[in-house]
Amino acid sequence: YLTPGDWAPLSALSRLLLGAQGTLAGRLLIGPFWAIATFLAGEAKAIRDGDRAIARCWALHSAAVGVLVVWIAGVCGMSLGLYVLGFAIPGTSLMLIRSFCEHRAEREVERRTAVVEGRGLLALLFLNNNLHAAHHEHPHLAWYRLPAYWRANRARLLTANGGLLYRSYGDVFARFLFRRHDAVPHPLGRAPRRTP
Length: 196
Fold this sequence. Notes:
10 helices, two-stranded parallel sheet, 59% helix, 2 strands, mainly alpha
């Protein structure tokens, strides 16, 4: 979500691209490029603004990427373009499936967090973080203990989150592949944060 104040000055193209990512198809096709570009732009701005810690991280990361590029191209004989388009972009798309529907705009914090109950391959890939309401309630619980915790507390967690449940990622795809999950501008402006 964006606040109305962050949404208002965006160009028509930015609004179109962000709006398209409200569907799962848009998130999978446009999302990786958007996520990578906005992340890199934010990191570049931080470095320009003098954040030395981020600059050091990028220096180490660049050295490691250099080694990886030599290995991919030299040892594996794969072009860097094929690696990016065949692995990095699809991997980012997979990651964006998990985050697509795990939250919704609600005034009450407890009612914002969804659960995708299915226990398939994506649940394993996401280390059971699809049981997001259980993860939010007990964030330090090991990933392999989340399913048991979810089963033991299912009724209470569903009552607390207002019943925000998807049976599986197949359910999420069926509902939102070409239909919007939510609007980009936060419908409540932005819910006030709780004070500790």
